[in-house]
Write a structure and sequence with these properties.
This is DUF2294 domain-containing protein. It comes from Niallia endozanthoxylica. The structure is a single chain. This protein is α+β, with helices and mostly antiparallel strands. The chain has one domain: Threonyl-tRNA Synthetase, Chain A, domain 2, CATH 3.30.980. It has helices spanning 2-21, 47-52, 56-73, 77-87, and strands at 27-33, 36-42, 91-99, 104-111. It has a four-stranded antiparallel sheet with strand order 1-2-4-3, covered by helices on one side. Helix 1 packs antiparallel against helix 4 (77-87). It is elongated, with a radius of gyration of 15 Å. The termini are close together.
Length: 120
């Protein structure tokens, strides 16, 4: 069941990203560690963003916009409720960042109880 719950979590992350960003990551994997769900996403940038990152100013703009936008998405109660319903625990906080050059994003969801035990 562990890999299945991680897969379901990854698919929910992709669904949320597609709904609010317009495209989801090409690859996504999630691992549960203690009360953390860690999602790694590859292939996040749009063609326009890939063009923009050819300059330092563009890199900075894309990084800032992506980071702020993702944090705003996860402030929405209807989004958080989907993750809490899937895991059966409350989301306490979230950390998110993207490496523009490598086109890899990481989001860490911190729950109020261990999620890796639920996945076993």
């Amino acid at each position: 069941m562990g890999k299945n719950l991680e897969h379901q979590f990854s698919m929910l992350v992709r669904e949320i990203r597609k709904e609010f960003v317009g495209n989801g990551p090409k690859e996504i994997s999630t691992r549960f560690v203690g009360n953390w769900a860690i999602s790694e996403m590859k292939g996040n940038l749009t063609n326009v963003e890939k063009f923009m990152i050819n300059s330092e100013q563009g890199k900075q703009m894309v990084h800032e916009a992506r980071t702020k936008m993702v944090k705003e998405i996860y402030k929405k109660p209807e989004v958080i409720e989907k993750f809490e319903a899937l895991i059966g625990a409350k989301v306490l906080r979230l950390f998110s960042d993207i490496n523009i050059e490598e086109d890899i994003a990481m989001t860490v969801f911190v729950f109020d109880e261990s999620v890796d035990l639920k996945a076993k």
